[in-house]
Design a protein that fits this description.
It is built from 10 helices and 10 strands. The protein has 314 residues and is α/β, with parallel strands linked by helices.
Length: 314
Amino acid sequence: ATSSQGLALMHEMLYIASGLRCPIVMAVVNRALSAPINIHCDHSDMMGSRDCGWIQIFCENVQEAYDWTIQAFKLSEDLDVLLPVAVNLDGFTISHAMEDVRVLGDGEVEGFLPTRKIKYKMDPDNPMTFGALVPPDYYFEVKRQQEEAMRVAREKYRSAVKEYASLSGRPYDYFHKFMVEDADVALICMGSTAGIARVVARKLRGEGEKVGVLKPWLFRPFPAKELLEALENVKALVVLDRACSFGAPCAPLCGDVIASLFKEERLLPVLNGIYGLGGREITPGEVEELFNLGLKAARTGKLEEKIKFVGVRE
């Protein structure tokens, strides 16, 4: 497990772990990066390493952190995948929370995770070289194989969550969908903030507004096709990022959402809300304001502003 500066200090090793196809599962307790010094929650640490070749999953609560850690081993150790997995949980909000957790028995977990098969290992009778220098003739092919493994991982992910659901009774998917089927506006966010968003969405539904919440569990590989299917009827989007990509047109999650839409020539108003940096809490009132901006965009087809820094002093 690691967090914040610890993850940043091992940035070099993240690429090595994925490049050597090491089936590692690592909990990442998401916290802000210095400077200035801050120990509280945001997603800047993992977003700085989002392209390092790790499968990345984001959890909303303690139960999900438990469940995803078990499922991550199933995915990581699959011989057709062999990629490291980062299981992300919000610093303090989840990592220091006291919640009821339904745990599986040791035998159930062992049945779900069979004895790991090791295809390539240190064997004196069959010596191999690991981590060798790879010149331009072959380096590109190695990287292409990693990308192919990521594509395979997306499909293996689906089978892993189905098997885990039959064992635990807790179904998972690429996303948690809340009232998005007929929504005019969907708010997309990862991590613990999704709970607040659902509370506000339920309130607005009671007032006759057609809004919903889409919470991605899987961030890498990004499920673009499934995202578009989930948002088939939506007229405007609000995408919340708990990180800032300095100098970019938008923050990381929003960038992936917009790219997914653009590839299929689907143009929607997309408001990017950047929030919660350094542990600042987002309030239900602020979430409601974002929904209202999205509803206005759904009616007019236009946004007054495309990036909004939520809850920050101007």
